[in-house]
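anyone seen this seq b4? input:
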Amino acid sequence: MNALANDEQLLQTPVGELAQSSSAELFHLRGSVAARIAKDKAIQSHIDAAIDFRLGDRVNRLRLELGRESGVIHLDDGDVRVTSELKKEVQWDQAKLAEIAKRIAQTGEDVRQYIDISYSVAESRFKAWPETLRASFLEARTVKTGRASYRLALMKE
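predicted toks r here
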C-alpha cells in the first residue's frame, strides 16, 4: 500500500484491491487519515474563530436591528457576502408538559392537537423484564441496525 503515494491514487484504488492490504497497512492508512481530519478540523475551528472575531459584533448588531435572534442573515464585507446562521434549539420541560397535558385532558380537549406524544422503552429495562412482560411488547418493538463500524488496533508494533 506504500505504493499509493497520494489521496487521489487511494480513491482510485478499487475497494477489493484495497481490502487485500494487510490489516496493519489499513490500520496505518486509517490512522493517517484520522490524524489529518483532526488537524483539518482544528484548523477550520481556528479560522471560524477568526471569522467570528472579525464579524461577530456586526452580525449580532444586525440580528438585533432585524429583530431575529436566530435564523439566517446576510451582510457584505468588502467583496464577500457573509451568511450567518444561528440555529434555534428549543427544549421543553417534560414534567411541565405532562402537567399541561393533564390539564388539557381534564377540559375534554384532545391533547394530541397541542402536544406531540411519543412512547419509548429503554432497552436495558426491556431486557430486564420477565419474558411474559417482554412478549406483550414485542409487536410494538422494531430493531434497526446502522452501518457497521470498525476499530483497528495493532497487537504489537
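The mean pLDDT is 92. The CA atoms of residues 101 and 116 lie 10 Å apart. kinda curious what u guys think
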